[in-house]
Amino acid sequence: MGERGAGVLMGGEPAWPDWGEFITQDREHINQLRGMSQPQQQTQTQPTRTGEPDMEITENELREMARTPWHDLTANQQRAVLAHLCGHGKSTARTDLRAALDMNPTRTAMELWQIQQAAGAEPSTGGHQPDTDDDGATGEPAAPVRWEPGMLVKELPADLHRARVVVSAAQKTARAAHEHPGRWVVYGVSDGAHARRIALEKVRRVVLAKTSAFAPAASFEAQAREVEPGRYVVFCRYVGAEQ
User: Fold this and answer.
1) Cα 173 to the center of its chain, rounded Å
2) What are the backbone angles phi and psi of residue 25, rounded to the nearest 5°?
């Protein structure tokens, strides 16, 4: 046995080493061995992507942020969303969208961007045009614009309402007869068991101007003819109003 920790008792028998002294003298070596046997702890945390301007943001993340209330986004996220919707650099569309979001911070950028497009806002200047139908995993179309009291708009949207104009068979017939005085014009066709009675009633209404399109009375002539078995056609022509 080596010199360190070895001893001889009286009578020539070897003594057990002094382990306390051994550990004290080799504490550094023991600590090193203990350190090697312990798992290495990670001291660095991986940087997160949220709000970091130098990290790449995926398309899906941009879409999600565009549908997040404006006041819930960080400044970096807001800039990324504006670039996503309106393109990089200054533009009227970008400035108007930012102003509208600052005045309506509870709304999302996508909602107000859609309002701008409906109002005929200036198109984006080279930026990515987002898919408003969101063709992601859900495949669901974008939500319609929610018009709420107090919301500011740049211009009024187009009015889709169109007055319904119905032109009746009588109006079509009277117009054609006026344009071609003295010419017979087809007014209507009747079939079935009561076809003759229906046809004669139409003749009466034409002559007496019971239908306003043929006013005044006696300005039109009318006749009913059975052109096929059980089928009657009513003809009329414009002869002019009585003086």
Assistant:
1) 46
2) -70, -30
Neighbouring residues of 99: CB distance < 8 A, sequence distance ≥ 6: none
Nearest one of 143, 53, 158, 152 to 97, comparing CA atoms? 152
How is 51-91 classified by DSSP, letter by letter? Answer: T-TTS---HHHHHHHHTSBGGGS-HHHHHHHHHHHH-SS--
Phi/psi zone of residue 185: left (φ > 0), alpha (ψ -120 to 50 degrees), beta?
A: beta
**With the C-alpha atoms ordered 201, 204, 205, 210, is the resulting torsion angle positive or negative?**
negative
Q: Which two tokens stand for residue 26?
A: 């080799």
**Helix (H) and strand (E) counts for the chain?**
8, 5
* Tokens, residue 45: 């945390």
Bridge partners of 191, per DSSP, are: 231
Q: pLDDT tens-digit profile of 81-127? A: 888 888 877 888 888 888 888 888 888 888 888 887 776 655 544 45
pLDDT, tens digit (0-9, with 9 covering 90-100), for 202-235: 999 999 999 999 999 999 999 999 999 999 999 9
Provide the residue count of the chain.
Answer: 243
For 46, which DSSP code? P
Q: Is the pTM of this model over 0.90?
A: no
Count of other CB atoms within 10 angstroms of residue 70: 22
Contacts of 186 (CB under 8 A, 6+ apart): 173, 233, 234, 235
Paired tokens of 70? 């404006």
* Among candidate residues 115, 203, 180, the one with its CA nearest the CA of residue 154: 115
DSSP state of 161: -
Q: Which residue has the tokens 């709304």?
A: 107
State the Cα–Cα distance between residues 68 and 147, nearest whole angstrom: 18
